[in-house]
Amino acid sequence: MATTSDIRNGLCIRYNHDIYKIIEFLHVKPGKGPAFVRTKLKSVTTGKVIDNTFSAGHKIEDVRVETHKFQFLYNDGEFYHFMNTEDYTQIRLLEAALDRPELMKEGEVVTVLINTEDNLPLSVEMPASVILEVTATEPGVKGNTATNATKPATVETGAEVNVPLFINEGDKIKIETEKGTYKERIKE
C-alpha cells in the first residue's frame, strides 16, 4: 500500500476496480483546510482519462510494474504488434493502450509497462520525441513570417501536425510525443 506522498507520474494504481496510470498530479496545500492531491488518471484498459482528488495521506493500492523495451512491428487495424528486443517474443496491444499511436512508425523502440502479477502489458510509453518526415503540406507564403503562423502538415505515419511556414515536403521534423506538437526541423 502506498500513500498520496508516493504519487508520481507513471505510477500505476488500482482504483474503482480498474488499473490507472497517473499522467499528471499536483500537491495542493491551501491556506485553510487539509492538503490534497489533484490527479489526472488514465485507464490502461480503456484509455479513458479522469480527474480525481485524493486527500493527503489517503491510502492507494499501487500495482507493481516492470518496464521492457519493445520494437513496434506493425498494426492491423485495432491491434498493434510489438517485439521484445531482448528475447524476441511478440505481443499485441489494443490501440487504447497507446498514448499517441499516430506518431509511431515501424521499427520505433518503446517502453512497455507489464503488470508483474499476471505478466499482462498495461501501457506503452513513447520516447520523449520522434523524428518523422513530412509527406504533405502547403507551400509557405514568402513574407508571411511576422507572426508565429503555422500550417498543417501530414507526416509519414499519417498524423497531422501544425508546423511553421518554412517547413516543406521531405523535411524531417522532431515532434514532442506527449503533446503531439512540432519541436524543431532536423538538418541532415
UniProtKB/TrEMBL annotation:
Domain of life where this protein originates: Bacteria
Pathway membership, UniProt: Protein biosynthesis; polypeptide chain elongation
Positions of the Elongation factor P C-terminal domain: 130-185
Main localization category: cytoplasm
Every Translation elongation factor P/YeiP central domain range: 67-122
GO molecular function term, any single one: translation elongation factor activity
Location of the protein in the cell: Cytoplasm
Amino-acid biosynthesis found in the keyword field: no
Record-linked Pfam families: EFP, EFP_N, Elong-fact-P_C
InterPro entries, per the entry: Elong-fact-P_C, NA-bd_OB-fold, Rib_uL2_dom2, Transl_elong_fac_P/YeiP, Transl_elong_KOW-like, Transl_elong_P/YeiP_cen, Transl_elong_P/YeiP_CS, Transl_elongation_fac_P
Keyword terms of this UniProt record: Cytoplasm, Elongation factor, Protein biosynthesis
SMART domains: EFP, Elong-fact-P_C
UniProt xrefs under SUPFAM superfamilies: Nucleic acid-binding proteins (SSF50249), Translation proteins SH3-like domain (SSF50104)
Record NCBIfam families: efp, PRK00529.1
Similarity field: Belongs to the elongation factor P family.
Function summary: Involved in peptide bond synthesis. Stimulates efficient translation and peptide-bond synthesis on native or reconstituted 70S ribosomes in vitro. Probably functions indirectly by altering the affinity of the ribosome for aminoacyl-tRNA, thus increasing their reactivity as acceptors for peptidyl transferase.
Name listed for the protein in its UniProt record: Elongation factor P
Organism: Gaetbulibacter jejuensis
Gene giving rise to this polypeptide: efp
